[in-house]
Write a structure and sequence with these properties.
Blueprint: E1 2-9, H1 13-24, E2 31-38, E3 59-61, H2 72-86, E4 90-93, H3 99-111, E5 114-119, H4 131-140, E6 145-148, H5 151-159, E7 167-169, H6 177-189, H7 191-197, E8 203-208, H8 217-230, E9 237-242, H9 248-252, E10 257-261, H10 268-272, E11 277-280, H11 289-296, E12 301-304, H12 310-313, E13 320-323, H13 328-340, H14 343-357, H15 362-381
Parallel strand pairs: 1-2, 1-4, 2-3, 4-5, 5-6, 6-7, 8-9, 8-11, 9-10, 11-12, 12-13
Length: 382
């Protein structure tokens, strides 16, 4: 079996970890190749070079530059050339919005090559009606199998016409657990020393992400300000902000807020080690992989109900809470409830996070995907 994956950018440490694990588990007598369209996207360029990420898998890079500078014609030519050269039995597309992918889809259908779609979309992504959904239903019918980020994305492709037997996995939202746990463990051992040397409060909420409008930082800052003004125990709590972006000025001078700046992806666990809980207040996230990272570290989480991960990763009151991202008082109240808990209760919530994240183990998911490739190829040839 020969599997070719088409992916948009080389700069993606999450996907690099999954592709590396898929390459490691590649069965004997099989072959695996990833074709990356471009090195990065402009919004990621400030976060470092793709070369800083470990790519322990075979790949071809069509364009050494940002994705927006790669023309449609060059995409199509490069992808078709790679497919002809590699001669795959299965082509795995990482989406269906790019017209170049439509050409690949038609090419594979004509050549009898099995098609798999990696899907991150869910019902939460926006309005789901009209001609666009009808077009998506047609596109979905062209695929033999589906790799889904979580249960919400699996439910969405089934609503568009996919069959349960076509789902390779619904746990593909994976992170680089080995790096995260290693960095976190080392940093946690120095946690109290670091808090003292940096003059941090005994307890911390943490936000990790780009400081941009869609992340809904004003709601988080207002909720935290209310907490500090109305909860006596909140004097022992601060809010760590890890990230950079256009809203930086709004977080730098807030009372009780520590702006830690933008950090490389592999240093984020060191800041999670300083925290007692993660907060993700976004107006919308297709998933929210930072929640996975926090849960791998055994942290409780407070997550916006508009993040795709909530159905799979948040159990109310057990490992965290969900909230309406437009309701700052609801978030403030949940933060207050969390502050009022004792250390043992917060530790139990963190342990429950570890249990909930277990199905998203990268080794387990890669095994599910390889079994799925074989299953859909057998079905296509029967």
């Amino acid at each position: 079996m020969r599997v070719l994956v088409v992916h948009n950018i080389l700069w993606s440490h999450y996907k690099a970890a999954l592709f590396s694990e898929l390459a490691r588990q590649c069965p004997s007598q099989s072959a695996f190749l990833v074709v990356q369209l471009a090195e990065s996207e402009s919004k990621y360029q400030q976060l470092g070079k793709a070369g800083a990420i470990i790519h322990d898998y075979p790949y071809e890079l069509l364009h050494e530059g940002p994705l927006h500078t790669l023309t449609l014609a060059k995409k199509v030519q490069g992808l078709v050339r790679s497919i002809r050269r590699f001669k795959p039995d299965v082509v795995n597309l990482s989406g269906y919005y790019d017209p170049a992918y439509w050409v690949v889809m038609m090419y594979c259908r004509l050549r009898g090559i099995a098609l798999v779609l990696s899907n991150e979309s869910s019902e939460k992504d926006g309005s789901r009606a009209g001609i666009k959904e009808q077009i998506k239903e047609y596109i979905i019918r062209q695929f033999d199998g589906f790799i889904n980020f979580g249960s919400s994305s699996a439910q969405y492709v089934m609503r568009l016409g996919a069959q349960p037997r076509q789902l390779l996995t619904q746990h593909a939202a994976v992170v680089n657990e080995a790096v995260i746990q290693s960095v976190y463990t080392q940093a946690y051992a120095q946690r109290e020393d670091l808090r003292q040397t940096q003059g941090l409060a005994p307890h911390q909420f943490v936000f990790v992400g780009r400081l941009a409008e869609e992340k809904n930082l004003p709601t988080l800052l207002k909720a935290f300000a209310w907490l500090k003004a109305n909860e006596p125990q909140a004097h022992e709590w601060e809010l760590l902000i890890v990230g950079d972006g256009p809203m930086r000025s709004e977080v730098e001078n807030q009372a009780g807020v520590r702006w830690m700046g933008g950090q490389p992806w592999d240093r984020i666990p060191a800041y999670l080690a300083l925290a007692d809980a993660l907060i993700l207040p976004s107006y919308f996230e297709p998933w929210g992989l930072v929640v996975n990272e926090a849960m791998v570290c055994g942290l409780p989480v407070l997550v916006s109900s508009q993040c795709g991960c909530v159905n799979d990763l948040v159990q109310e009151g057990k490992n965290g809470y969900t909230f309406d991202p437009r309701n700052e008082r609801e978030l403030a109240s949940l933060m207050q409830s969390f502050v009022q808990q004792n250390d043992a209760d917060r530790t139990r919530m963190g342990q429950h996070s570890l249990q909930l994240i277990a199905p998203f183990n990268i080794t387990r998911v890669a095994k599910e995907i390889w079994q799925g490739y074989q299953r859909i190829l057998s079905a296509a040839n029967s």
